[in-house]
TrEMBL record:
EC numbers on record: 2.3.1.97
GO molecular function: glycylpeptide N-tetradecanoyltransferase activity
Reaction(s) catalysed (UniProt annotation): N-terminal glycyl-[protein] + tetradecanoyl-CoA = N-tetradecanoylglycyl-[protein] + CoA + H(+)
Self-association state and partner proteins as the record states: Monomer.
Lineage of the organism: Eukaryota, Fungi, Dikarya, Ascomycota, Pezizomycotina
Location of region: Disordered: 1-67
Protein name: Glycylpeptide N-tetradecanoyltransferase
Polar residues biased stretches: 8-20, 38-48
UniProt source species: Penicillium cf. viridicatum
Reported function: Adds a myristoyl group to the N-terminal glycine residue of certain cellular proteins.
InterPro entries referenced in this protein's UniProt entry, alphabetically: Acyl_CoA_acyltransferase, NMT, NMT_C, NMT_CS, NMT_N
Record-level GO cellular component terms: cytoplasm
Length: 478
């Protein structure tokens, strides 16, 4: 829950008692709050997403004993020792009479708040929290930079409610020290339509990660969703929790290899040279697919129909409304040029030159990473593959998708991106190897809350690419 649950937040904590903590523990908490409010060095944290562009790996800690998952054992999620069931469905029927009508109590020194993504000041506070505490890099080399415009895009999809963008503040200073977000969405699980909340951006200030705030945030957003008749959720994490419905590796494709090398993002293989690496990742200056052009507002209905049909290929897929797709694909498009750093998402269509019908569609979005150790190249611009679709079917689908994504690489390079990322899901097996995507260190695990998934969902997290067996997950989480 892009949507990036931190292992330290989620797997080692349990809920505090309603009676509060001991005086000694409260003294620790108050000292930490004082430190947060007065120590400027706490803003100097950094990020590592397999060199700053993917969600953090577990550093070899994936195989954890089930006893360490105290919090998740109390939640309606499939446990590791369960077989998944022969059919899907809710794990627990929620009795609203048992759901608290007011928020869960917080420790002394903290208070609940909300973040309004349309308020410039509050978005700035969230930007600061995420920049310094969301994803960390042990070498202090890179830091993910979720820009305010990206956060507005990610948090204001149709149906959003401020009450689902939950913050925790230090009472004395009003400093934002923790956050979790939720957005309503519709998905299909094995053709079964489900109303869910997409959970994202769970973030705890580094100094407070032993204070058991993460389980409280999860319980609080769960409580608020229950009261709005939403009983299921979808989320992702780098950590292995009970229990993934699908797991996928990150892949990276260099667009400006020399810049990545100078920034410390990419290394030089011992059996290669700089010239060979530059030649390896060469891309032509023009796209190859006839009829490829920037998506326009008039294309929305055709793209909606095309994408809806294409996503039926996958076991778990989103069900977008026209308004949702308009927001996801056109947010900020009229306010920024194609290569502008203020633009969030890029979308293109292929129009048949004879029939004028839309036959294909591809999109990607942008997240920047700040390079802390190299002043020459202070920003790495990363394009993340988003949704795509085609009217072609096997055996013509592979060359078609391969050509479409290759053109997306060219367009991303023209828009001054430095690297292009994709997960090993959807039909990405069809092009990852051929287009010189390299496997990263990180994996992303998908989870469903309060829903038992039939075991046919692809759960492969290996490096093996199989173009004959596309991934079962069709949902792309930001």
């Amino acid at each position: 829950i892009r949507n990036r649950m931190e292992e330290s937040n989620m797997t080692q904590n349990h809920l505090p008692s309603s009676n509060g903590e001991s005086k000694e523990r409260m003294g620790e908490i108050k000292q930490d709050l004082l430190t947060i409010e007065t120590d400027p060095s706490l803003t100097k944290s950094s990020v590592n997403l397999d060199k700053a562009t993917e969600r953090p790996s577990d550093n070899g800690k994936e195989a954890k004993d089930i006893e360490s998952y105290k919090f998740w054992k109390t939640q309606p999620v499939p446990q590791f020792n369960e077989d998944g069931g022969k059919t899907g469905g809710p794990i627990k029927v929620i009795n609203l009479d048992e759901v608290p009508k007011g928020p869960y109590p917080l420790l002394d020194g903290f208070e609940w708040g909300t973040i309004d993504p349309e308020d410039e000041k509050e978005v700035g506070e969230l930007h600061e929290l995420l920049s310094n505490h969301y994803v960390e890099d042990d070498d202090s080399t890179f830091r993910l930079n979720y820009s305010p415009v990206f956060l507005r895009w990610a948090l204001t999809a149709p149906g959003w409610q401020k009450q689902w963008h939950i913050g925790v503040r230090a009472s004395a200073s009003q400093k934002l020290v923790a956050f979790i977000s939720g957005l309503p969405a519709n998905i299909n699980v094995h053709t079964q339509p489900i109303k869910v909340i997409e959970i994202n951006f769970l973030c705890i200030h580094k100094r407070l990660r032993s204070k058991r705030l993460a389980p409280l945030l999860i319980r609080e957003i769960t409580r608020r969703c229950y009261l709005q008749d939403i009983y299921q959720a979808i989320y992702t994490a780098a950590a292995v929790l009970p229990t993934p419905v699908a797991s996928y590796r990150y892949y990276h494709r260099a667009l400006d290899w020399l810049k990545l090398y100078k920034s410390g993002f990419s290394g030089l293989p011992g059996d290669s040279t700089k010239a060979r690496q530059i030649a390896k990742y060469y891309l032509p200056s023009t796209t190859q697919t006839p009829g490829l052009r920037l998506m326009q507002a008039d294309d929305l209905d055709a793209v909606h129909e095309l994408l809806e049909r294409y996503l039926q290929r996958f076991d778990i897929s989103p069900k977008f409304s026209i308004d949702e797709l308009r927001h996801l694909l056109f947010f900020g498009a009229g306010q920024a040029k194609e290569a502008s750093s203020k633009r969030v998402v890029w979308a293109y269509v292929v129009e048949d030159l004879e029939t004028q019908k839309i036959t294909d569609f591809v999109s990607f979005y942008s997240i920047e990473s700040t390079v802390l150790s190299h002043s020459q190249n202070d920003v790495i611009r990363t394009a993340y593959l988003y949704y795509y679709a085609s009217t072609d079917s096997p055996p013509n689908l592979q060359p078609r998708i391969q050509g479409l994504i290759n053109d997306a690489l060219i367009l991303a390079k023209k828009a001054r991106f430095d690297v292009f990322n994709a997960l090993h899901l959807q039909d990405n097996d069809l092009f990852l190897e051929k287009l010189r995507f390299g496997p990263g260190d990180g994996r992303l695990h998908y989870y469903l809350f309060n829903y038992q998934v039939a075991p046919t969902v692809n759960k492969d997290a290996s490096d093996y690419l199989d173009s004959q067996r596309p991934g079962g997950m069709g949902v792309v989480m930001l």
